Amino acid sequence: MNPQDPLILYGESFATRLLLGSARYPSPAILEQAVIAAVPAMLTASLRRQSAQDITHGSDFWALLHKMNVPILPNTAGCHSVSEVVTTAMMARELFATDWIKLELIGDDYTLQPDTLNLPQAADQLLREGFKVLPYCTEDLVLCQRLVDVGCQAIMPWAAPIGTGRGVMNPYALRLLRERLAVPMLIDAGLGLPSHACTVMEWGYDGVLLNTAVAQSGQPVQLARAFSQAVQAGRLAFLGGAIAQQDQAQASTPVLDMPFWHQA
């Protein structure tokens, strides 16, 4: 990607615009190869999947994360209350030695939809504790504006429910959201194909976060590389100013006047 166009989050610069999850890969070796192929800006890790004891005493998974030397983005996956979010984030900061946190506050166990009523409160508390909060949220404009109002310098709306791979379910809302809010926005959850990632990047989104679409694919390393290239292509298309759609055909080949064609 153009080194002059880094991703800026909370004043910190990242060379790439793809964030990658670390769960559900067929093996640690494939996870490592996928990370090498994707070159992600950050790698997410769940404290609930990686116990505190494992991290403290050194598990194979933790050793692999350390070896890959990619910034870790801990998340609060599985939390259902604000107090649970704050407790988990505090533990993650101590164990992973980072102020970055992906805020997940689940409101529905079937769709894993974020708790839109309590998410701003959770974000506000984490920000007051000095965290750099990346909240996983829906595409609701009012919710996202509220998250920005409490101090979130970036937000991560979903395209579709986690793990579905359906791509963007509400294009109108996501495009409106991109037009209305000026903070960096990354699409988190629901993407299944590289073309999905390319599309949201063409709309002006600043990055994407993927897990299932890569980890559970037939060839995770190939999909990691494909998504990385799709994100780059979409960003370049956005910066390049892709043409607007037209209702009628527009001639693309110049017509030259050739008088000699009409001579007898």
What this model shows, in words?
The chain is an alpha/beta fold. The protein has one domain (7-240): Aldolase class I (TIM Barrel, Alpha-Beta Barrel), CATH 3.20.20. The protein contains 10 helices and 10 strands. It has helices at residues 28-38, 52-57, 60-68, 82-96, 119-128, 141-149, 171-180, 194-202, 212-215, 220-240; strands at 7-9, 12-14, 18-21, 43-46, 72-75, 100-103, 132-137, 156-157, 186-188, 207-210. The strands form 3 sheets. Strands 5-4-3-10-9 form a 5-stranded parallel sheet. A 3-stranded parallel sheet has the order 6-7-8. Strand 9 (186-188), helix 8 and strand 10 form a beta-alpha-beta unit. The N and C termini lie far apart (57 Å). The model has no long low-confidence stretch (mean pLDDT 89).
Order of helical and strand elements? EEEHEHHEHEHEHEHEHEHH
Q: What is the SS-derived class? A: alpha/beta
Q: Care to count the β-strands?
A: 10
Oligomer: single chain
Overall form: globular
The residue ranges in which pLDDT falls below 50 over 5 or more consecutive positions are none
Which features would summarize this protein structure in a list?
264 residues, alpha/beta, TIM Barrel, five-stranded parallel sheet, three-stranded parallel sheet, 10 helices, 39% helix, 14% strand, globular
